[in-house]
Amino acid sequence: MLYRAGSVLLTIVLSVTGCKQSQTPPPAPIQPAVKPAPATPLSEKKDELGTENAWTQVWDTFIEKNLPPEMLSAKAAKAVESYCPAFSAASEADKRAFWAYTIQAMAAAEAGLKPEATAQHTQPAVAKTDKITRRPMRQEGLLQLSYQDGETYGCNFDWQADSRLGLKDPARTILQPERNLACGMRILKTQIIDHDKPLLSRSSYWSTLQPGTQSYHVFAKQMANVPPSCGKQIAKSAVRRKATRRAQP
Q1: E strands within 66-108?
Q2: What is the CATH number of the domain that holds 160?
Q3: Of 51, 58, 106, 168, whose CB neighbour count within 10 A is largest?
């Protein structure tokens, strides 16, 4: 009888202990180290002129914290060698800052740093129909993306909800900076990691990253303030020439 009572008591103690242990919250995920990215020339100019500057460091931080880990790899270092020759030797925080700066430069060239920017190409050679909206395709947001990209790259755009809103309504999912930037990072990762292409490629999703195009020259000018950790010993003009030579089809 005494043995049975002891067994019951031990079972109760273990059950209570197990409950307490199961209620312990899991440790919070470790946040990556981040550091401020430089401002692009366009952002600096807007500040100097006192005009509205939509770009905010909050977006830099978002990019740095949500960057796909593959974008810190040796393959990524090779892809960005033309603009960041010291990428492989940089700290993780410096690598993240480089990507934040580069994407800011892309947004400057693509959308003038305006999250509500939207455009529609009408030239027959480039005019297409968006498979999601079934309307003429528009390029929208900071990185000038389309709803079709949501399906292609797994981006979090909601055409059904957005179709009930105005064209430049900031509530539209495709215009929301964090969703737009997250989609852009997916596309960059596909180009650089999955397809093993450099940052500058004639087959890039963005004409901004296609050497020889007008928008590429705008992007190249915006890359004038890359973080010092990238290695400033290479002259900017030499970097642009090297970048053009390294561009792949």
Answers
A1: none
A2: 1.10.530
A3: 106
